Amino acid sequence: MKKIIPILSILMLLSFGGWKKEKITIPKDAIRFRVIANSDSDYDQQIKMTVKKGIQQELYESVKNATTIEEARKITQEKLGDYKNLVKKILLEEKEQNTEIKVNYGQNYFPEKVYQGVHYPEGYYESLVITLGNGLGKNWWCVLFPPLCSLEAESKEQTSEVEYQFFIKDIIKKYFK
Predict the structure, then answer these.
(1) Sign for the pseudo-dihedral over CA of 38, 60, 78, 143
(2) Cβ–Cβ contacts within 10 Å for residue 13, how many?
(3) Is residue 18 part of a domain?
(4) Which of 58, 72, 41, 52 has its CA nearest to residue 137?
(5) Domain span including residue 158
(6) What's this model's pTM, rounded to 2 decimal places?
(7) Does 2 reside within a domain?
(8) Backbone angles phi, psi at 83, to 5 degrees
(9) Which of 22, 53, 138, 139 meets the CB 3.0–4.6 Å disulfide criterion with 36?
(10) Mind listing the pLDDT tens digit for each residue in 72-119?
(11) How many helices (H) and strands (E) would you count in the chain?
């Protein structure tokens, strides 16, 4: 009976909303990053993700030490040519040397999006946008500065293994050994 009381207490806390989902908001002083595919075909979407993966580490390395939006803005603007050349190189490796590339930094339109229960309103946002071909396909985007989307790039530098632990499972193990 003594072992069941802590478990019931935890279950009651969970059922009464003791755990709230944290709402994520993008800071007003942020720089977004977006890659727009040529079309919605499976192939063009795969190319978009290849470009995203290929340039994400470079973007992270570029702005990881920036402490203000002004620094990140200056770095990003100065490296636009480097970013375009990197995308060209990625496309050449994918045998896509004829794909037109547009790299734009400034106020760019983002459509409304709901992702994991968080609403991101449509509007014009300061951003780096890479458009592939006609730019008629689905896009991928994240926040370049502060480096919210760069966590994936950073974690790839440190380790490729992830360990998951579950709080309730650990409690059950503790009391039912």
Answers:
(1) positive
(2) 11
(3) no
(4) 41
(5) 23-175
(6) 0.71
(7) no
(8) -65, -45
(9) 139
(10) 999 999 999 999 999 999 999 998 878 899 999 999 998 888 777 777
(11) 6, 6
